[in-house]
Specification:
This protein is mostly helical. It is built from 3 helices and no strands. It has one domain.
């Protein structure tokens, strides 16, 4: 298993990336310019999801972490599902309607 400091460093980097992801989603909702490819839709494509499903998921074997990781996974997936709805409104529906 990796050193604790390396795990914390990777988790921190994933958290920072996800915070930026949330900020970009907020920009979209606030009608600020956002490129269509700037925000990962799938929960496994963002930096946090990549960390969670590679390094983070290893902690699920420990019963004390399993429940917590399940909750984190659920919330993270729900966040991306909510963003998918926003994405469809701004990028899919508007393309279909045209001007």
């Amino acid at each position: 298993m990796r050193k604790r400091s390396e795990i914390i460093q990777n988790l921190t980097a994933a958290k920072v990336a996800h915070t930026k992801w949330v900020r970009k989603a907020k920009h979209l909702v606030e009608s600020l310019p956002v490129k269509e490819d700037m925000i990962p839709i799938d929960s496994t494509d963002c930096k946090f999801g990549q960390w969670f499903y590679s390094e983070g998921i290893r902690f699920k074997i420990d019963d004390s972490f399993s429940s917590i990781l399940g909750k984190i996974e659920k919330e993270h997936t729900e966040l991306h599902n909510l963003y998918l709805k926003i994405y469809k409104i701004y990028f899919v529906d508007t393309k279909r309607k045209g001007f």
